[in-house]
Amino acid sequence: MIKKSLFLLVVLLVITYQGLVIYVDKQLQKQSHENVYNSCHKIWSARGIYKDYVNQNSIGSFKKAFSMGSIGAEVDLYYDVETDRFIISHDRPKKDESGKLIYTKKDGRILTLEILLREVGEGHYFWIDYKNLNRISPEETNQAIARLLKITESGTIRERLYLEGSHPQRLSMYTDAGFKTIFGIHPPYEGNLLSSFTINIYKMAYYFNNISAIAMSYGLLEDPAYGPDTQEMLKAVPVFLFHVPDDEKLINTLKEKQDVRVMLIGRDISLDRASMNDCK
After folding, report:
1. Cα(63)–Cα(123) distance, rounded to whole angstroms?
2. Is residue 18 part of a domain?
3. Residue in 145, 182, 176, 146 with CA at minimum distance from that of residue 162
4. Is residue 3 part of a domain?
């Protein structure tokens, strides 16, 4: 009796899973995603263009990237609950003896999102890697959203911000507040038996939480996560790719894909590849 019940439960779960996959795919095919970034300037800069690690995510690195042709940049950011500030930094803050969070300074100062947007925000796009989104409570998230709404209340900057995180429910709160959001996923490489299942689960979370786009690592040139099968499964989803191998043939192939909206070339290295954008 127990075995039979378990068998029926497994069958029910499989049918439910397959039904949800079919439903989500059909719904995604109906969506146009016209409000998601879609330009020939697909190659953005990761943390700007810099020589030394300490200079990444700095005003100087972003100015250099934009002057060399990048229309957008990926930026690392933390929201500090105590001071109600969005602080630009890749490094996780440390605590001093009193427990106060100490952030990495840029050019001798704490670089906040307000300063970044004021000094280099005009006309540019920003892919915000929201480092501590998952560690903020719903109440603190509402506080952060209120602050971000204030920061972006003038001009068109809100339309040019894309907030990335791996917590779909928290991201949906930003979507509901009027921001563009990116669901950061980390599926196994395509050779893994669980790859297709994982992608489908991520796709359901993306759809049901009304997120704008999906972000993922391309993977290795010889062993990709965003290979042919994954590309087919995500063919109706705007994709922001990071850690794309610096391979000309691959980059040119990805540029032709309608679903690929943004690419960051290389991993933990500063590369200028904006000239490879096919903008006539």
Report:
1. 12
2. no
3. 182
4. no
Residue type, position 178, single letter:
G
Instruction: Provide the residue range defining the domain that includes 227.
Output: 31-276
The residue with greater pLDDT, 4 or 94, is 94
Is the pTM above the cut of 0.90? yes
For residue 226, the model assigns a pLDDT of 97
**If DSSP states are collapsed to H, E and C, what string results for 149-162?**
HHHCCCCCHHHHEE
Q: How many domains in the chain?
A: 1
Q: CA nearest 107: which of 26, 151, 52?
A: 52
CA nearest neighbour of 37 among 86, 65, 63, 71: 71
Q: DSSP label at 188?
A: P
Q: What is the CATH number of the domain that holds 184?
A: 3.20.20.190
Report if residue 222 sits inside a domain: yes
pLDDT at res. 13:
79
